[in-house]
Amino acid sequence: MSLRINETIELADWELSESFMRASGPGGQNVNKVSSAVELRFEADRSPNLPPAVKIRLRKLAGRRWTKDGAIILQCDETRSQVRNRELIRERLVALIKQATERPKFRVKTKPTKGSVRRRLDGKKKRGEIKALRGRVE
């Protein structure tokens, strides 16, 4: 069962591996008995379906979830259902990769106009004069 990201990117089965463990937190006896938490491991660095630019952006977005061997590890224990946790974690991975596919907007640096600088400084001067008048009355 492959995971489709968009028209060009589709992740193969071997790139994804899931493991299940007991969830922490409240939930009573269910938490102690059932392995409902899901850990998804995606071999991002070895993936042939991701372009190099997307891999670089994905590494930056993943942060500390990116391992030394180039995998992304995501965990989910939000619900009591293992099936629902699997769906949630896959949705998160798809959202993360989609975010990495978007190229950041190129920002053109601009200088403030001379008029805006002058207006800003005039405002600061007026405000300073008002504050200076707040001194002690003699």
Summarize the structure.
The chain has helices spanning 29-33, 52-62, 82-101, 114-132, and strands spanning 3-4, 10-11, 16-21, 37-42, 72-76. The chain has 138 residues and is an alpha+beta fold. Helix 2 packs across helix 3 (82-101).
What is the H-and-E element order? EEEHEHEHH
Summarize the amount of helix as a percent range.
25-40%
Contiguous uncertain segments of 5+ residues: none
- Characterize the overall form: elongated
Structural Rg: 26 Å
Q: Helix count?
A: 4
Mean pLDDT: 87
Could you please say which CATH topology applies here?
Answer: Double Stranded RNA Binding Domain
Query: Looking across the biggest beta sheet, what order are the strands in?
Result: 3-4-5
Major sheet description: 3 strands, antiparallel
Supply the CATH class: Alpha Beta
CATH architecture identity: 2-Layer Sandwich
User: How far apart, in Å, are the first and last alpha carbons?
Assistant: 84 Å
Describe this structure in words.
There is one protein chain. Strands 3-4-5 form a three-stranded antiparallel beta sheet, with helices on one face. The chain is elongated, with a radius of gyration of 26 Å. Helix 2 packs across helix 3. The mean pLDDT is 87. The longest helix has 20 residues, at 82-101. Strand 1 (3-4) and strand 2 (10-11) form a beta hairpin. It has one domain: Double Stranded RNA Binding Domain (2-Layer Sandwich). The protein is built from four helices and five strands. The protein has 138 residues and is of the alpha+beta class. This is Ribosome-associated protein. InterPro entries: Pep_chain_release_fac_I (IPR000352), Pep_chain_release_fac_I_sf (IPR045853). GO terms for molecular function: peptidyl-tRNA hydrolase activity; ribosome binding; translation release factor activity. Belongs to the prokaryotic/mitochondrial release factor family.
